[in-house]
Specification:
The chain is α/β, with parallel strands linked by helices. It is built from five helices and eight strands. The radius of gyration is 28 Å and the shape is elongated.
């Protein structure tokens, strides 16, 4: 070993879990890769051998983070530390999810609340439900409105229709002085399905935005070429 050599084991000997399918170091099969440095800087496209050499000289791993890229994207990092931190985050997330207790949120309205305001209030109620909270929906009566309580019950029925399968009625409508209230709880299966649908929509929107940005770049280059 030369005096300036690093006294650490070769990259290919770094232990990897049998369940871990991430390609690192010598397991990377692509001939050419796009490399991201330790601080997130773009190092450009190069052969996998060159990228491995850079990682080895820095004393870190070369990790394939986007295998479907053209070319695949690799990042120089301490993979063992990265996996440890990811495991800690996952465990903390589970503990937080189990430890969270549902809180009771309240949405208030009047018998005369119009559809526009009602839709806004239902947007908030939906957000509360997707966060796992209960929702108390209250209709407030004033003066002569007390003589038409049926309007309040009709309003609560409409609320249930708008929220649909997301909710289950925990406490049916009940009058308490000038307030008519019911308590709704999230339907777990419907809430999970709604969350997945929102996440999928967000991913599609992000992907579409990325493709749109990529499509504009050549057009700009062409305009500069013709200038």
């Amino acid at each position: 070993m030369s005096p300036g050599a690093r006294p650490e084991r070769p990259q290919e000997e770094r232990p990897i879990s049998e369940k871990d399918t991430t390609r690192i170091n010598e397991r990377i099969r692509a001939r050419e890769v796009r490399v991201i440095g330790l601080e997130g800087e773009q190092l450009g496209d190069m052969t996998a051998d060159e990228a491995r050499r850079l990682a080895e000289e820095a004393g870190f791993d070369l990790v394939e983070v986007a295998p479907n890229g053209k070319p695949p994207v690799c990042r120089i990092m301490d993979y063992g530390k990265y996996k440890y931190e990811q495991k800690k985050k996952a465990a903390a997330g589970k503990a937080k999810g189990k430890g969270r207790t549902a809180t009771l949120k309240e949405v208030k309205m009047r018998p005369s609340t119009d559809d526009h305001d009602l839709q806004f209030k239902m947007k908030n109620a939906r957000r509360f439900l997707l966060e796992g909270d209960k929702v108390k929906v209250t209709v407030m009566f004033r003066g002569r409105e007390m003589a038409h309580r049926k309007n309040g019950y009709d309003k609560l029925d409409h609320v249930k229709q708008l929220l649909g399968t997301l909710v289950t009625v925990e406490a049916p409508p009940q009058m308490n002085g000038r307030f008519l209230s019911m308590v709704l709880v999230p339907n777990r299966e419907a809430v999970e399905a709604a969350r997945r649908a929102e996440q999928a929509a967000a991913r599609e929107a992000a992907q579409a935005a990325g493709q749109g940005g990529a499509a504009k770049a050549p057009a700009q280059g062409e305009s500069e070429a013709h200038a």
